[in-house]
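Researcher: I need the complex structure. Ligand is zinc ion. Inputs:
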Amino acid sequence: MRPLPILSAVLLFVLAACAHAPGPAQDASSRPVILVSIDGFRPDYLDRGITPNLSTMAAEGARAEMRPSFPSKTFPNHYTLVTGLRPDRNGIVDNTMEDPGPPLRRFAMADREQVRDAFWWDDAKPIWVSAEEAGIRAAPMFWPGSEAAVRGVRPTYWTTFQMSLSPDARVDQILAWLDLPLEERPGFLTLYFDEVDTYGHMYGPNATELDPAIARTDSAIGRLRQGLKARGLDANLVVVADHGMAEVRAEKVVVLEDVVPPGLGRPLTTGAFLTFVPEAGREAEAKAALLSPRPHMECWEKAEIPARFHYGRHRRAAPLFCLMETGWEIAPRGSLARRRAVGGNHGFDPEDPQMRAVFVAAGPDIRQGARPPVFDNVDVYPLLARLLGLAGEPGDGDLDEVGAVLVHGSERR
Ligand code: AMP
Ligand code: ZN
Ligand code: ZN
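Model: Output:
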């Protein structure tokens, strides 16, 4: 046998192997990107001394504070984080909203049928859709929008939102997906914890009653990190929140009916802000009632909302919007008896430091000790796109500030 054909055969084999070398998809599944949301987790919760796992992550990687997008509520901000578009552009303008149609349609977080309908989500392309299109399997567990076939694409793995599932059980689902054979394994996963927000609403951000929820969530993140380590997975872990939390009090309330008499229209959201749809033919009365100046609140017609909020162009943004002073709420008279002496809420001005959301990241592509200045949460999307090696869709964010968390050379991916 002459050596040359063998050599060229070997060479051919090597070349063929190179052609099938891990592409972005395989690369992502052996180095997954995991986006974790802790609902309502304020950056200063890290300073309570009860988050050993998140604190270790921050020490090994990056830590920062994010400004949420307006309004500082769960669904709008979760969709902003994965689309890079502010709520006024991504179509999820509030947790509760109406699309004027025709036909008129209503959306609420607890309405399973609507939450699963791509109609609400199709204005934007979530990063898991781009990942799937690039051959990276996605597993956006419990992320708002993940139960819908957005732009006709369903993530490979998803589950119905189940609030009763414990934080540890959620982590175990993520680890089970990562235990799949390489060719089936997701390269982009998300995880969501709601307890910190729930307890924050009940007791307020300053209460010690909040501590066990913070600690349990931190411990679940420890379980995740441990599970990744045990599997030898070098994941890029990005922990974010959707918004912060401010203390509210029973007596700091403006009574809805004192502002706008019943019959003038429908209030869609009350609390930290009021969204109001006037009854046909009573627009002028509703406007006159809401736009007259009052302490602790400021109201606008949607077209007049100050530019810094980037809000009011979308057809789903309610015709009238009132923002409460931080700490003050607007509430229907019938709800006053149920108000807790002290509690928490969000939905207030995103510029208020109390509305800020946590950002902690660690992993092979995250720079140790990175401490970028406060940035807007629209910047998380380009960061995720970079970590996944995706071009990403044009959006409202950039890497100007958050790019500092990337290790030098991560541009290769
Ligand atoms: P918020 O008060 O705006 O922070 O909303 C928080 C609530 O959103 C949580 O307590 C959950 O009940 C709800 N929620 C979060 N994610 C989902 C989801 N994927 N599907 C339905 N409801 C959700
Ligand atoms: Zn939330
Ligand atoms: Zn909340």
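Model: Summary of the prediction. DSSP finds 13 helices and 17 strands in the chain.
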